[in-house]
Model the fold of this input.
Amino acid sequence: MTAAAPIAAPTLPEVRRERGQREVFCGLTGIVWLHRKMPDAFFLVVGSRTCAHLLQSAAGVMIFAEPRFATAIIEERDLAGMADLDAELDRVVTRLLDRRPEIRTLFLVGSCPSEVIKLDLSRAARRLGETRRQVRVLSYSGSGIETTFTEGEDACLAALVPLARQGATTDLLIVGALPDIVEDQFARLFRELGVAVRFFPGRSATDLPSVGQGTRFLLTQPFLNDTARALEARGAHRIAAAFPFGAEGTTAWAHAAAVAFGVDEMHFRQVVAPYRERAKRALERHRERLTGKTIFFLPDSQLEVPLARFLATELGMVPVEVCTPYLHTRHLAEELALLPAGTPITEGQHVDDQLDRVRAARPDLTVCGLGLANPLEAEGLTTKWAIELVFTPIHGFDQAGDLAELFARPLRRRDVLKV
Ligand code: SF4
Done:
């Protein structure tokens, strides 16, 4: 009997790690898309005027228009010199819930000011939940000290996991706050494949699937590290897959689930072929503008690695460097394996050093945060705001062309201006 050959560990590319000044939104930003996804949830930002300003101007949300946007803050003057912060928080929450009896789930969202950090929001959430039994009160941190902007979604969804009923669902769980239109498309695709699906979160913060031993889930976003861990702690199993960006990415993502659920290979191909072909045709329209163009990702949304893979393998772009705030290698193994060999990858940020490398490389396109885009444009570089990638539906076959368009548009504008 011969000894079994050792299983080769996947070879991961070399990763540069940088620490220094960061230029990234904080986790509060996630409220902008999460409150749309869960209209029965209310996000009470326990923060300062700076937090209000972020949500109001940078993210374009009218936080004082509560009935429409379901967001509120505790202002600085409430916090300054307060003898009993818990009592003040109770007072604000009581006033809010009396005025808004339709709220079923209340998220207390922590932020940076030292007064807020002193508050134990999880204890406050438990206390408030006990006195207001018709409302589920949860907490998470959106603080810029602890989170970058997509980590806000991760923290929020991880806070929801304990509320899911214990017990295994035989359905596939699709995890991540997707726009409704994308959710509908994925539901249709899996229905045709013969796989029943549930979404986490659903269209209501109270509509949660059961989770337990045997639950299998697919991530739709690479930044849901804590959420995945919380689901795994309940016994759920993550189906390892590339992320559903582009024709090939979405095919690989759906295929991983199809294999896990025993879908016949021929049936899979028959179902997926028309979607995949349509997506490839949509990408073809952008190929000429994008192929051979160099792209530099500064760290921002945590979508950098899958998007670099999409642009390189499906559209022939050349990633000069891919920087990401955090590199969850476990979740990104499939993506990293598909990146062109030798693509430089950086985890973390030292903004000055990274900007020096951007200036030296002078890429055709730099994907970065809002704060860096204007200075780089002033230096004659073409930029793409990373935040748009989070606010725009980009997942799945039907969005492949729109996703390519997001990168083609600034290059088209640059070419027009040159002329
Ligand atoms: S949470 Fe912190 S980083 Fe975010 S807006 Fe408030 S003060 Fe600024």
